[in-house]
TrEMBL record:
Subcellular location: Cell membrane; Membrane
Alphabetic keyword roster: Cell membrane, Membrane, Transmembrane, Transmembrane helix
UniProt KW Thylakoid keyword: no
Membrane spanning residue stretches: 72-92, 98-116, 174-196, 202-225, 232-250, 256-276
First-listed, main subcellular location of the protein, grouped into a coarse class: membrane
Family membership noted in the UniProt record: Belongs to the 4-toluene sulfonate uptake permease (TSUP) (TC 2.A.102) family.
Record-linked Pfam families: TauE
Membrane topology reported for the UniProt record: Multi-pass membrane protein
Protein name: Probable membrane transporter protein
Record flagged with keyword Cytoplasm: no
Length: 306
């Protein structure tokens, strides 16, 4: 029971992040599972299984509110599913030590991306344009699906910003379409993991804990964004992911890092992290103190689960 509660708290933390940013449930929960010593392939597999429930509920909700562009879902979900299955199969067949390093590198990249994006640009979702072409959607889906399976997360951090930056869809359509298509990607990754690993190695208390924690806390995620600005939370989470996965790389058997270098790396990351959070807070204050055209003072675009 104690372990179930612990994993539910991991799900709570991941959902609070995801409910505020519209991404990073998988990245956050996988990072936390790796921190407590979970096997990389198992960590990703169990996160994917937990997300079957959360992504299904999210997709249904978005569809009911008319937030889904089914053309985009079709074009991004199928290549995403292929990429996720390939990524899951590749991760399972890697040696454990190598898998830890590979996953840590991918998570480090995603964490750095979140840190830089939210610190420098915030979450700009104001541009709307023409329909997105298949030449853009198909490779985006394949890459995002592959990273999502091998890193235990990445569909939201890659897919959502890319579509928003493309500027050809309404923000709500981007969020709803990426969220709905994630169920297909998660299903493909889960099939890939279960085919290679079987059911015997799955720790269901982790899956149930992540699922229950995420579902229970979802209604409270909106409350969190009233307390912590999305831009600042993105910097906080990005820095946490960078720090924890740098630690994983430094402690990996495949990488020999002198103690002094490790300490210097931790200090440097902490300093950059603190500066990023400080900058995000100041930028948020500046944005909310100067109303933009067509936007009421203090308002922000909020996003839901992906």
């Amino acid at each position: 029971m104690q372990k179930l509660v612990m994993f539910a708290l991991v799900g709570v933390a991941a959902q609070l992040v995801d409910g505020s940013l519209g991404m990073a449930y998988g990245v956050t929960s996988t990072t936390l599972l790796l921190m407590i010593g979970t096997n990389p392939a198992m960590a990703s597999a169990m996160v994917q299984l937990a997300q079957l429930g959360t992504t299904a509920a999210s997709g249904i909700a978005h569809h009911s509110f008319g937030n889904v562009d089914w053309r985009v879902v079709r074009n991004i979900a199928l290549p995403g599913a292929v990429g996720a299955f390939v990524g899951a199969t590749l991760l399972v067949n890697m040696p454990v030590d190598l898998a830890k390093v590979v996953m840590a590198v991918l998570l480090l990249g995603l964490g750095s991306y979140l840190l830089v994006r939210f610190t420098v640009k915030g979450f700009d979702s104001s541009r709307v344009g023409q329909p997105v072409g298949r030449r853009f959607l198909v490779p985006l889906g394949g890459v995002a699906g592959f990273v999502d399976a091998t890193a235990g997360g990445g569909w939201g951090p890659i897919g959502t910003p890319a579509l928003l930056a493309n500027g050809r869809m309404e923000p709500r359509k981007v969020i709803g379409s990426v969220s709905t298509s994630e169920f297909v990607v998660t299903l493909a990754a889960s099939v890939g993991f279960l085919t290679a690993l079987g059911l015997s190695g799955i720790q269901w208390q982790i899956v149930v804990g992540l699922l229950v924690g995420g579902v229970v806390v979802a209604p409270f995620a909106a409350l969190l964004v009233k307390v912590i600005p999305a831009r600042m939370l993105g910097s906080l989470v990005g820095g946490l992911i960078v720090l924890t996965n740098t630690r994983t790389l430094i402690n990996a058997d495949l990488v020999a890092v002198p103690g002094g270098v490790a300490v210097a790396a931790y200090v440097a990351i902490a300093a950059v992290w603190a500066a990023a959070v400080r900058h995000s807070w100041r930028a948020h204050r500046a944005e909310t103190s100067t109303p933009r055209e067509g936007v009421q003072e203090g308002s922000e675009t909020r996003v839901t689960h992906l």
